[in-house]
Design goal:
Layout: H1 3-25, H2 34-65, H3 72-104
Helix pairs in contact: 2-3
């Protein structure tokens, strides 16, 4: 993986981190449209994970076909990116389910 690709991934991570900080630093009454903003953020995250997995699959298939310019380290890195992003998405889902269950078990 080249330095340019690493810098690109780091820039994406920083961008997402900045977006989440902006969303959490607002005052509770200053939120625009709570549920739809959350839903769009989740949808965007799921789409990014899907794109990462599709890219890894395409590179893997291209490597298996023996296409020039596709090397094994590149394929392995993309597959690891897809794996890490999927695990992160799964962890977010698990935390959301856990929070939902806690809320539902609260005494009113």
């Amino acid at each position: 993986m080249s330095q340019m690709e690493i810098d690109s991934v780091l820039a994406q991570i920083r961008s997402l981190s900045a977006q989440t900080r902006i969303g959490t630093s607002q005052a509770p009454g200053a939120q625009k449209s709570g549920p739809s903003e959350f839903a769009s953020l989740m949808s965007k995250g799921i789409d990014q994970v899907n794109e990462t997995q599709q890219r890894a699959s395409q590179l893997s298939n291209a490597f298996q076909r023996g296409e020039p310019g596709v090397e094994l380290p590149q394929v392995m890195i993309e597959m690891q990116k897809a794996s890490v992003s999927f695990r992160a998405l799964t962890e977010v889902r698990n935390r959301l389910v856990s929070a939902y269950q806690e809320i539902m078990n609260m005494q009113v």
